[in-house]
Amino acid sequence: MDCGTCESATPLQVHKPEEVDVSLTMTEKATSMLEDAFGDDRSHALLVGVLSGGCSGYMYDLQIVESTETPCQELNINGFRVLVPSASSHLLDGIEIDYVDRLMGGGFKINNPNASSSCGCGESFS
Amino acid sequence: MGMARHDAYVLLVQGSSALPFLDGLSTNLVTDSCTTAFTNRAAKIIDVCEVISMTGQAVLIGYGPHKAHMIDHLSSRVLGQDVVLQDITHLNDVFIGSGDTPPPSEATVHESHFGTVYVIPKRVEWKETWSQTEWNEHRIEQVIPFHGHEITPKYHPLACGLGDLVHPNKGCYLGQEVLTRMRSRGKQGYRLEVRENPVEQATTKGLKRSLCIVRDQ
Questions:
Q1: Residue finishing a domain among B102, B121, B140
Q2: Does B38 fall in a domain?
Q3: A with B: how many residue pairs have Cβ under 8 Å apart?
Q4: Which residues of chain B form beta strands (DSSP E)?
């Protein structure tokens, strides 16, 4: 097979939506859970990203990170550093980060006004 | 025994996230080379592709007429992940067959769900030994569904005999809820069959027998 690495094969244009200035909110319950997770240490940040996949095509990706090489918008929400990757800003503008306290299917939950549908477990949307 | 020309596109998927990216969007578990189906939310087929895993990259081989839709489907889902897509269709020819044809040294050979796939650089002269009719006769004999016949956007993978490509517990992907529901309820609507001629609405018409997709009773 010729793979194009020895001769130039132009990379396909990946659909790049316009970056938007993200605004997001966090419920009291989610804030309280983050306070438990972070303690007094505010050097880390909450990374709220989107990956491809899941039942609906896009999946939320929440991580606690010190830093990231991914280009991000940095927000300060209720005293926490929140990072939103620029590449997924159009999917995350206006979201509310909530925390649902129940034995099954509990945990952080994203309420997203941009989602036309989401799967039952709430991790995936389109 | 032999091999036929396959109207295929060849995409190079580079980057450390290449395999997880393809895995997250398709029905089979993509951790290595395999055949997998890309479906939409309704579990209808977008394309069924060969994934050839190579060091640091993967090669995706799909059906030529589905190329534009697949590229659109994939490229809109690269969200800052380490994935670069390249179209290398113009550099390669793709053949598919029964696996007993010795390939040239430049060939990449992949064992697919449908048979042995050969990816040959266009600069290398290699001729098919089977006509499309002979390939179809082989498929009917082996009950192998294929692109443009049984595998079309009209059907979901279970209907056209691709249940083996739907991993039972790999987790979420587009169309997974629909396919899982069909399996758990034992109702998939349609199924692939081989029948003696004459066959009404055959998807692949053979000399004596044909493939068709029939409604489940």
A1: B121
A2: yes
A3: 111
A4: 3-5, 8-14, 34-39, 45-54, 57-63, 84-87, 92-97, 108-111, 116-121, 190-196, 204-205, 209-215
Q: Domain residues of chain A, as ranges?
A: 25-125
Per residue in A66-114, pLDDT (tens digit) is: 888 889 999 999 999 999 999 899 999 999 999 998 888 788 999 999 8
The CA distance from A35 to the nearest CA of chain B, in Å, is 29
Which candidate in A50, A52, A86 is best for mutational testing of the B interface (most B CBs within 10 A)? A52
CATH, range A25-125: 2.60.300.12
d(CA B113, CA B153): 19
A20 touches B at CB < 8 Å: no
B204 in any annotated domain: yes
Residues B180 and B73 in one domain: no
CA distance B173 to chain A (A): 4
Cβ within 8 Å, pair A85-B41: no
Last residue of a domain, one of B121, B143, B172: B121
Higher pLDDT, B55 or B215: B215
Nearest-angstrom CA–CA distance, A124 and B42: 15
Q: Is the ipTM of this complex over 0.90?
A: no
One domain for residues B32 and B100: yes
Residue range of the domain that includes B163: 132-215
Residues B18 and B92 in one domain: yes
Q: Which residue of A has its CA nearest to B41?
A: A56
pLDDT in tens, A44-63: 999 999 988 888 888 899 99
B200 backbone dihedrals φ, ψ, rounded to 5°: -75, 140
CB contact under 8 A, B21 and A59: no
Q: Which two tokens stand for residue B65?
A: 């007429």
